[in-house]
Amino acid sequence: MNANNWIVMGLVAAFFWGLYPIMFKISVNSNYFNTPVQVGMIGFSLGVVIVSAVLYLPDLPISLNVEFNKWGFFFSVIAGILWCLGQSAVTNALSHPSTNVSRLVVLYNVNTLITVLGGILLLNEIPESGDRVQIIIGAILIILGGIFSAR
User: Fold this and answer.
1) How far is Cα 139 from Cα 143, in angstroms, rounded to an integer?
2) Of residues 80, 103, 91, the one with CA closest to residue 23
3) Rounded distance between C-alpha atoms, residue 71 and residue 75, angstroms
4) Which of these, 139, 144, 76, lies nearest to 107 by C-alpha position?
5) Domain boundaries, the chain
6) DSSP characters for the chain?
């Protein structure tokens, strides 16, 4: 991966993750299509499976004798479970007519703090001294955004 490729991929992810809550609100909110939350989550999951199959199945080796790391797979499943639980909470929130997606997204993106703390505490990704101030300022801004949007 090129040194700046992660920045491009982060921006691509931000674009798609910025659009999907809008699509979900249109799907499950009673002001739009009023799809039951359960059906919305199944449709969402189907979308994940389709994109994963299109993007990643062609790259799998033909041989089934691929080295398989059961713990790596286990943690992938745990990540999927955690993501789905969070997505279920967002979908339930979006199903209520009074939910403003523009406020909800700011609130649930406080998750960045959990990821930063997990990276530092669990993965030992200690920021360099120059980055610490930027991370602290960013964390304060995220917390303020969550507080302001929840009011």
Assistant:
1) 6
2) 91
3) 6
4) 144
5) 5-108
6) --TTHHHHHHHHHHHHHHHHHHHHHHHH-TTTT---HHHHHHHHHHHHHHHHHHHHGGGS-SSS-----HHHHHHHHHHHHHHHHHHHHHHHHHTSTT--HHHHHHHHTTHHHHHHHHHHHTS--PPPHHHHHHHHHHHHHHHHHHHHHH-
Tens digit of pLDDT at every position of the chain (151 positions):
565 687 888 889 889 998 999 998 999 999 999 999 999 999 999 999 999 889 888 877 665 556 667 888 889 889 999 999 999 999 999 999 999 998 898 889 889 889 989 988 999 998 888 888 898 898 889 889 888 887 7
Structure tokens at 45: 């999951």
Give per-residue burial for 57-66: e unless 16+ CB within 10 Å, then b. Answer: eeeeeeeeee
Cβ-Cβ contacts under 8 Å for 42 (sequence gap 6 or more): none
| pTM for this entry | 0.79
